[in-house]
Amino acid sequence: MKCKCHAFFETLATKLKMDIVEALEEGPLSVNEITKRVGVERSTVSHALLSLAECSFVEAKENGRQRVYSLNKETMAPILRRVEKHVKKYCRRCKK
Q1: What's the domain range around 47?
Q2: Is the pLDDT of residue 18 over 80?
Q3: What's the gap between Cα 42 and its chain centre?
């Protein structure tokens, strides 16, 4: 069976999606809160969240009429730490 890793990385491959992930590292947020933090229209944020949720990078819970999103701490937190460590140590492009 062929690896599907490309789908994983494609899901995170935009600045907006990474901005959302970084915002959620601090704790759960509603769509409105995420929109304010990343400075992008609500519909664009909602679309990005849907994509992130399809790969279970984020999870949504209903809180009354609003959805509150949180980062999948089991998998995403360790992955992000590992990526950050790699970037700091090896990524010449990121140091520019």
Answers
A1: 5-71
A2: yes
A3: 15
Coil, strand or helix at 74: coil
Other Cβ atoms closer than 10 A to 46: 13
CATH of the domain at 56: 1.10.10.10
Cα(41)–Cα(33) distance, rounded to whole angstroms?
11
Sheet with 66-71, strands from edge to edge, namely 29-30, 66-71, 58-63
Q: Give backbone dihedrals phi and psi of 18, rounded to 5 degrees, phi first.
A: -70, -35
Copy the structure tokens of residue 47. Answer: 């679309």
pTM: 0.86
- Tell me the backbone φ, ψ of residue 30, rounded to 5 degrees: -80, 170
With respect to residue 79, please indicate whether it lies within any of the assigned structural domains. Answer: no
